[in-house]
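RECORD TYPE: inverse folding
INPUT: structure tokens
STRUCTURE:
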């Protein structure tokens, strides 16, 4: 834990939420400006150290595969919509998120931790956040474990950049990073990548959608019939706020996969 973060936490705890602060300073525009500048400086200090050790994504964006990024996005779609003008659900609408001010989507109540971040969702800010949201917003509410693979983060960010009426241009390739076909062949059957999910149609959908909220070990231990899996999906949509799977073919593929591999013996 960085010293900057400890200072920021102390400042926030000791002053930000107290009636004394609000009474003495907050009703004065001058002191409001001073407080904002001080807090921003402290948080910037924390953010500089937060990205240490996270591999930059900039160079990989030039060759990132947006179609694969769309698959990675499935785990985001559990809680986020990504259509122009759509209302927020569990999380804010991700349409035009690349380049947008942090915590600035109208109609969504962000955590105080994320509100204090400031700046824009540029490529590297998203890269750090997607690797581990707590690095940028330690007290944030997003229950997301992060994406370890820098390649997958690049694919996801490249896809997110397409979700806009005026997409931000990706970096131009100076040179390709590795042979993508080799990377693909190395990960397709990798049980570590898929956390033990057996190969078959529907594996990617189950992996990216289910791991956001559940341990895949729990998924693999259920032993439900197809009908029971279907009821479980409906319950998660109706009671847990999961975004519905609108495409019937995708929904059937997921149910077929779950019942085939984790159904009743």
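DESIGNED SEQUENCE:
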């Amino acid at each position: 834990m960085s010293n900057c973060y400890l200072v920021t936490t102390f400042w926030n705890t000791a002053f930000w939420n107290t009636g004394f602060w609000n009474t003495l300073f907050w009703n004065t525009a001058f002191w409001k400006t001073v407080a904002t500048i001080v807090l921003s400086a402290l948080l910037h200090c924390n953010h500089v150290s937060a990205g240490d050790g996270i591999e930059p994504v900039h160079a990989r964006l030039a060759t990132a595969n947006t179609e694969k990024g769309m698959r990675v996005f499935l785990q985001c779609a559990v809680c986020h919509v990504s259509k122009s003008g759509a209302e927020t659900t569990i999380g804010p609408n991700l349409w035009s998120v690349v380049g947008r001010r942090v915590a600035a989507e109208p109609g969504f109540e962000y955590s105080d931790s994320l509100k204090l971040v400031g700046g824009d969702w540029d490529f590297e800010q998203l890269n750090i956040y997607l690797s581990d949201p707590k690095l940028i917003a330690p007290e944030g509410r997003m229950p997301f474990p992060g994406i370890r693979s820098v390649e997958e983060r690049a694919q996801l960010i490249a896809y997110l950049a397409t979700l806009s009426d005026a997409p931000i241009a990706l970096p131009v390739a100076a040179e390709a990073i590795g042979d993508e076909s080799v990377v693909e062949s190395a990960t397709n059957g990798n049980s570590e990548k898929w956390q033990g999910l057996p190969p078959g149609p529907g594996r990617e959908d189950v992996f990216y959608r289910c791991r956001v909220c559940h341990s895949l070990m729990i998924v693999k231990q259920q032993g439900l019939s197809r009908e029971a899996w279907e009821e479980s999906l409906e319950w998660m949509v109706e009671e847990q706020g999961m975004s519905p799977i609108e495409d019937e073919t995708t929904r059937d593929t997921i149910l077929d996969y779950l019942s085939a591999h984790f159904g009743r013996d």
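NOTES: Confidence is low (pLDDT under 50) at residues 5-11, 13-17, 40-49, 174-191.
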